[in-house]
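Sequence, please.
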């Protein structure tokens, strides 16, 4: 077992350049924990917010970072089932960034944050699996209760969670309208399975939705942006439709369009994936749902670009540039 390992840490909030690779002694898992030998790390946009000090929880310095990794269990804590040793699995990011982080050659994780993914997936795909598809399940199945033939508007559609939402809507027999800012990603979103694509920098979003739905609007709007986008979501939502607001990427104020909501009897639901993570029964249901659809080929995590761990700063800059479709993966 390697005695010295690389761990990514940061000592202050800031841009990607605050990330530093440190050489440290091999950590040992404590009670309820395992040591994962990391084979792949999937970057998550929430990690930018953690790094900048804008997340729901702020870590203590020197801080670790990272929610999603896949690898092999190399060591276990004193009260962990030895059957976990040697298991290939990936992290379900239901832990706090104040306590854990997966950027490095190894990662200490709670045993309750492990998910065994189907053997058909690579380490890279396994790392990219849980966060995006569990988030989409929670927002579209659990919260919005998607039905066959529902029309679903998906903003930030080229993100990993947007891609997962396209896959899920198709699996449930719905109709997806993917929204992207530039035409560069249009063909890729169609290839991913989107039924319609709206390029918001070139097209009138409201007019295009009216055209696609013959004026009826969408039953579900799935949005991680907020800000001015919320008013547009209300403009396109159908009567008795639901807007699932699961992020706050916009830096502009989010104004609640109450008057329009009253006219449409619409629901606006704020949703965070921890609503699923914090309920063991709900999480087990979601994991089973995702696993089944990976096995039948409906869900395949899309990998955009791969970086070596030594280029973690460049990987973060690429994530912030938002020119990719799917997941950026880092390999130790």
């Amino acid at each position: 077992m390697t005695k010295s390992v690389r761990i990514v840490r940061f000592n202050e909030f800031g841009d990607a350049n605050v990330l530093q690779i440190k050489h440290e002694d091999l950590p040992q898992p404590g009670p309820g924990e395992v040591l994962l030998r990391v084979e792949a790390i999937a970057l998550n946009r929430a990690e930018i917010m953690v790094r900048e000090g804008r997340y729901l929880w702020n870590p203590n310095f020197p801080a670790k970072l990272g929610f999603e990794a896949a690898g092999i269990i190399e060591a276990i804590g004193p009260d962990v089932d030895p059957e976990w040793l040697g298991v290939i699995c990936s992290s379900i990011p239901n832990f706090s960034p104040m306590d854990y982080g997966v950027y490095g050659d190894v990662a200490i994780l709670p045993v309750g944050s492990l998910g065994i993914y189907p053997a058909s997936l690579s380490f890279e795909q396994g790392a990219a699996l849980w966060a995006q598809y569990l988030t989409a399940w929670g927002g579209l199945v659990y919260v919005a209760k998607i039905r066959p033939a529902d029309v679903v508007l998906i903003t930030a559609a080229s993100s990993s969670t947007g891609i997962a939402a396209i896959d899920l809507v198709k699996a449930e027999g719905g109709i997806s309208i993917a929204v992207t800012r530039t035409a560069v990603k249009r063909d890729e979103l169609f290839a991913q399975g989107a039924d319609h694509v709206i390029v918001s920098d070139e097209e009138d979003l409201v007019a295009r939705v009216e055209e696609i739905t013959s004026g009826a609007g969408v039953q579900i709007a799935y949005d991680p942006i907020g800000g001015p986008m919320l008013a547009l979501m209300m403009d396109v939502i159908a009567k008795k439709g639901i807007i699932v607001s699961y992020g706050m990427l916009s830096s502009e104020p989010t104004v609640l369009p109450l008057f329009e909501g009253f006219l449409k009897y619409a629901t606006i639901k704020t949703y965070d994936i921890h609503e699923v993570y914090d309920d063991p029964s709900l999480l087990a249901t979601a994991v089973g749902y995702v696993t089944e659809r990976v096995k039948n080929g409906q869900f395949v995590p899309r990998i955009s670009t791969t970086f070596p761990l030594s280029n973690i700063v460049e990987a973060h800059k690429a994530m912030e540039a938002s020119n990719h479709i799917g997941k950026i993966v880092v390999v130790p």
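The two ends are 16 Å apart (CA to CA).
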